[in-house]
Amino acid sequence: MTTSNAQATITVPNSVSMVSLLGISDDVLRAIELALPAVNFTVRGNEISAAGPDEDVAVAKQLFGELLMVLRSGHAVTADSVERSVSMLRTNNKVTPSQLLTAGILSNRGRSIRPKTLGQKEYVDAIDKHTVVFGIGPAGTGKTYLAVAKAVQALQNKSVNRIILTRPAVEAGERLGFLPGTLSEKIDPYLRPLYDALHDMMEPTTIPRLMTEGTIEVAPLAYMRGRTLNDAFIILDEAQNTTAEQMKMFLTRLGFNSKMVVTGDVTQIDLPKNSQSGLVIVREILNDVEDVSFVRFGDSDVVRHRLVQRIVAAYREPDKKKAKELAETMFEHLVSE
Fold it and tell me: pTM to 2 decimals?
C-alpha cells in the first residue's frame, strides 16, 4: 500500500513574530519535527512549507493554525505542548488544542497556570460545574496543583472567603502530639506539597499574612473534625490514605456556598493492611449522586518531566505481566481438565 505525498504552505501573518511561533533557537519547530517525523519542514521568511504523507501534512497544517490562534489570544506557544496537540488533532477530539492551551486559570510572575491535557480540562470544568469533585489518578497528573489554582482563583474572584487545604498525616497515625517540636514543625512535612503549590500561585510575602488572618488554612485532616465549613474552597489531598470514617467525616464538613475537591491515587495507599481506603469506598457510594463528579486521570495526563510518564507506565508493567501469566496458567489448567 502506497501513501501519496502532499505539500502545504503556511503563511505567518506579519503581526506574529516567527520567534514566538517557532521558539527561541527553533525549539518549538524541533518539537514539531519530532512529533511529525514523516514531514519535511522548510522555513523561508514568514512562510513554512510542509511536505510528506497526506495525513501528516494535514495535521501539520492544522497544528500551525491552532498555534497561531494561541498566539493571537495572547498566550505563549511552548515545545511541551506540541506533542499533546498533535495527539489531539490525530484523534479528532471535540476540544481543539487552541481551546486547551488558552484555558488559563491564573497568571503569576509572568507564568500562566492552565490545564495541559484533555483529562485536566475535564477536571477543571468539573470543578466549575459541581460542588464536590473527586480527582483520581497517578502521580504527576496535576490533581492537587490545579485544585489549588482553582481555589486561589475562587478567592481572588471573591467566590469564597477562605481556602482550606488538608491531608491525612498517615505516617504519624495523625497522633501528632507524640512528635517533637511545635505544631507547625509537626505538620509541615505532611503539608509541604500544599505550601509548594500555593507559593507557585501567590506572592510569597502575602501567604503568611493570609494564613495569620485565617483566609488560608493548611492543616491535617484530624483538625477538620466537628467543624462546618461555610464560604470556603476545601481541598483534601492524598485522600487514598483516609479511612472510610475519615472520608465521611470530611465530606460532612461541607457548609453553605462551599466547594470541595478530593484528590488521590488509589495505587498508592499507605494505610495498614486491615484498613480499607475511604477513597475506594466513596466511589461506590457517591458515583450516582447529583452535583458530585468523579474525574479519572490516566498516564497520558502526566505533565511532569516526560520521564515521569514512562516511570508510571513502567511500574504498571509487572502487574500486567502477572495478570497475563495468571490467565495463561488458568487456561492451561482448564485445558488439562
Answer: 0.79
**Which tens digit of pLDDT belongs to each residue from 287-326?**
999 999 999 998 888 876 666 666 766 776 666 565 555 5
Distance from C-alpha of 140 to C-alpha of 119, rounded to nearest angstrom:
12
**Environment class of residue 308 by beta-carbon count within 10 Å: exposed (0-12), middle (13-18) or buried (19+)?**
middle
Cα angle 114, 118, 122 (rounded to 5 degrees) comes to 80
Question: What three-state secondary structure class fits 7?
Answer: strand
Q: Which string of DSSP letters, residue by residue, matches 56-125? A: HHHHHHHHHHHHHHHHHTTPPP-THHHHHHHHHHHTT-SS-HHHHHT---EEETTEEE---SHHHHHHHH
Distance CA 216, CA 233 (A): 10
Question: What would the grid cell of residue 6 be?
Answer: 502532499
Distance CA 280, CA 91 (A): 31
Cross-strand pairs, 47: 11, 44
Question: How confident is the model over 141-193, as pLDDT tens digits?
Answer: 999 999 999 999 999 999 999 999 998 876 544 444 544 555 555 556 667 78
Based on its alpha-carbon atoms, the radius of gyration of the chain, rounded to whole angstroms, reads 24
**C-alpha to C-alpha distance for 127 and 38, rounded to whole angstroms:** 40
